Amino acid sequence: MPLEQREAPAGRRDARRNRRLLVEAADEILRRDGLGAPLDAIARRAGVGNATLYRHFPNRQCLYEAVFAEAAAHWEPIREEILAIADPWIALASYLEQSCNFIAADRVLVDMCCQELLDSPAIVELAEREDRDLAQLLARAHRDGVVREDVQVADIRLLMASLHHLTGPVRTVSPQGWHRHLALVLESLRPRTGAVLPPGCLAAEELRQILVNLAPATPLNRD
């Protein structure tokens, strides 16, 4: 067997290892220093050179997408477990609570969604799946009369965006304080005799623009 054929598998293994090390290093450093963290710091933490980093991730967005995809993979089994809950109210409440635990506990994921990856296929796919999940959960809750009939998916999405942005800062001051805020949000979804929501449920593009507006105005460091 020619030498180059024998060496190719090892080369591919090294490439996979380097990519994994870079994603792990990026996850660690972005969590600590935010999205403006220098890329050379990520390369050093991974134990590779800048050229290796750019070979795997030619720009920041590619690196962010890899970090997000790694994190999102951990959400999938949580999501499936929640959707299997028989009680419609517990299922919907668990979806909101666990999404806070998953995303809001990790500030960099919120920033990625609202700043760098808003139009990324990974974020678009996640948002579409989330809409389908919420539509299913909300339909079950409406059918059983445990959520007010005028609540729509866009209402839940906006509530979730609020929770995701608030939970992280609250946790730094009061680790359990966000549960009270979540309980108040959930209580607002309960049916109320004679109470009617004002008109003006957000369209998809309006919700997207709100998420854009939530992003910090300060530009990121683009080393």
Summarize the structure.
The chain is mainly α and 223 residues long. The protein has helices spanning 3-33, 39-46, 50-56, 60-83, 88-104, 107-116, 121-143, 153-173, 177-188, 204-214.
Walk me through the structure.
The protein has 223 residues and is mainly alpha-helical. The protein has 2 domains: 1-58, Arc Repressor Mutant, subunit A (Orthogonal Bundle), CATH 1.10.10; 60-214, Tetracycline Repressor, domain 2, CATH 1.10.357. It has helices at 3-33, 39-46, 50-56, 60-83, 88-104, 107-116, 121-143, 153-173, 177-188, 204-214. It is elongated, with a radius of gyration of 21 Å.
Individual helix count:
10
Q: How would you describe the shape?
A: elongated
Q: End-to-end span in angstroms?
A: 44 Å
Radius of gyration: 21 Å
What fraction strand? under 5%
Descriptive key words:
10 helices, 223 residues, disordered N terminus, Arc Repressor Mutant, subunit A, Tetracycline Repressor, domain 2
Topology:
Blueprint: H1 3-33, H2 39-46, H3 50-56, H4 60-83, H5 88-104, H6 107-116, H7 121-143, H8 153-173, H9 177-188, H10 204-214
Helix pairs in contact: 1-2, 1-4, 4-5, 4-7, 5-7, 5-8, 7-8, 8-9
